[in-house]
Amino acid sequence: MESAEVARRFLKYFEQRGHTVMPSASLIAEDPTLLLVPAGMVPFKPYFLGQRTPPAPRMTSAQKCVRTPDIEEVGKTTRHATFFQMLGNFSLGDYFKEQAIPFAWELLTAPVADGGFGFPEEKLWVTVYHDDDEAHDIWHTKVGVPEGRIQRRGLADNYWHMGVPGPGGPCSEIYYDRGPEYGDEGGPVADEDRYLEVWNLVFMQKQLGAVRSKVDFDVTGDLPAKNIDTGMGLERMAAILQGVDNIYETDTLWKVLERAAELTGTRYGRDLRNDVSLRVVADHVRSGTMMVADGIRPGNEGRGYVLRRILRRSIRNLRLLGGQEAGLMHELTAAAISAMGEQYTDLVRTAANIHTVIDAEEESFLQTLRTGTAIFDTAAAEAKRSGGAALAGDQAFKLHDTYGFPIDLTLEMAQEQGLEVDEAGFRRLMKEQRDRAKKDAQDKKTGNLDVSVLDELLNASGGKVDFIGYNNVVAEARLAGLLVNGANVQAAGEGAEVEVVLDRTPFYAEGGGQLADQGLIKLGNGAVVVVEDVQSPLPGLVVHRGRVRQGEVQVGDTAYAEIDVERRRAISRSHSATHMVHAGFRRALGESAAQAGSENSPGRFRFDFTAAGAVPISVLRDVEDEVNEVLINDLDVRAFHTSIDEARAMGALALFGEKYGDEVRVVEIGDYSRELCGGTHVASSGQLGLVKVLGESSIGAGVRRVEALVGIDAFRFLAKENVLVAQLAEQMKTRKEELPERVAGVVSRLREAERELERLRSQQVLAIAASLADGAKDVGGVAFVGHRAPDGTGADDLRKLAVDVRGRLQARPAVVMVAGAPKDRPVVVIAVTEGARERGLKAGKLVGLAAKTLGGGGGGKDDLAQGGGADAGAIGDALAAVERAVGAA
Ligand code: SER
Description:
With 889 residues, this protein is of the alpha+beta class. The N and C termini lie far apart (93 Å). The model has no long low-confidence stretch (mean pLDDT 90). Serine binds at residues 39-41, 88, 160, 200, 202, 229-231.
């Protein structure tokens, strides 16, 4: 049974039993406690917690997931993968154990012809939480599983939570017995290799506070309802149903694996090391493709770092397989897109984009590998010189962090050189860095707040703060929650730094690239809070950060919120302009110019998009021209809500893969641009006034950044440049139009004059060569010239002069020494003829002697050498010392 069919069957089974089929949410988790979605239930978390009303009481989904804590295990075991899909059925306060258990049993055991998975009953075992008699009885009496195949297990195995504060509950797992050839008898308790877990049914009913480990956590209470969350790993199920031993050999991964073998000229199943690499490549390329498709870009922190690591590990393993050349990743990405395209049609639609990002990362990593080898050699030599047998942890870390050199490569190359690597030190530094990155990312969003405090705030504001700022700039609201230093308080006085939650607000929280509103919150009693930043740390929650300017604020007070209208208008202009420029680039460069990020600030915006190389200046000009031409037609800007499918059908640009929720907000600017967007905009395009693109640059592999000004800021910029040009024209005494030509002319004449000056100086220096040669002193049968050039003569000229004089004395044994002080410090050049060399007079040695006198060092070859020192006053002594040495030869 194909993987896609496993998913279809699962969803259909539950759809027929009253479940609404939900699309997979993006891999980018909305939840601030997570970087990536690691489980099928993540998008349902707010429903379990009662923070949001579920769209339906029964739902089912096939969710894309990425987990990387066990990345090193990928390929070595039969079941670790960084990307996988989780099938699940969810009940939000609807049915509970008594129905979830028979549902699961029926789907697993019903014949394939009837829409089931056709497992023989006697091959299935189940486990329940140790005191869950209820689940035990349902399995035994209602379903008919014999006592002997029901096992009880403790917290570590049969209690599920997210590893962070949130929902949790006891669970019951279903296992498939692969048969005696895979291990010992005795059920899952005895052997989890022989008995494979295929489905986890979680009875989600508790609210968890602090979670210290899998088995150590605080239960703070009951969830508002008793829920069901189940998870079946699609890949593992497919492996069983396809009769293969591991997930890498299932249909979709196999397509990538086979292509990798073909491209590297290897065969799967011949050599364990190669097999591991092939599996890593298959898993990682698929993960990377799925992550890029959801809008993640390779980077050095957060999700970007996870993606970069996955892509680089693929490339590294390809090299281990003998695949060195560029372009392999392109082929493999294409294989992944074709393997997954049936389930995720977006992949095919955005293939060009995905390729741009992955190709660029491959190119930059191959470059790193080329230069990295040289950097590694230096580090290794240093380690050896200092007598150590190991490369220090900080060296390995630096190679990794600064040069992107993977640790496994460092380890391997060190081994070749008989060196060890202080891996523990390396890992400690890596962990520190990762913790820092994680903290940075979360700090911005959550202000370092405890998630349980945020949950409290959300509850205090009625489960959801109403954002009414699309149509209002002021609002009357209730002060629902107040934090000082991250702790819930009832009141705060003048000067306090506070975080304020209102039940409704006109303040836009930073998001979707749009910066936050600023403004004031005035309380009925005369107190005022100055709002400097607004964030949404949890979906539905809006936190205003600021300072109490006067009076005392209290929870429960009536508040008048007013945003800084000028700032908002300027930001809205930037946001609408970003949409227009985005549309302009797509028209000019094609669909592959997809937005990869943006920042809309007052009067200014930047817009990042994927492109294989630099965008020609002519394209920038054309886009700018078109946008300005279109905007003066004063197109209406309209925002409306519709379903994601409808929005797609209208051609609206969705940036980062589909998001949950039935409805999306579409913003259209006339017929010119249509995007999914939650931001604020102008009412009509004419309000933008003017858009001025400042330039374009690279901000990373395959991603370009355009910066631009909007409205009065754009005008002021142009006006300022106009004045500058006028001033220049006046100074150059020419008309503005002729300025470039005029400046080019002046620059070229200046260059010529400099070259001429240089030529004359050299001539002058060399002019004395003849007289120096004539005046050579006979020192013990050797012609000796000792000359001090005027200060300021360049080192090049000193050398030229020495060589020139030596040329004139070629026939004789001769030593020519020219000294000078080009810039304060003395420089000495010595040139020696062959005749003198035969007498043992070596330029290098003589320079060494001179330099010593000058308080410095130097050396060189026997015929010509150069040195220097610190004390120009000693040049006379140096000349005398060399003359003496010549005499003594
Ligand atoms: N949340 C459970 C899991 O991830 C079941 O979906 O295993």
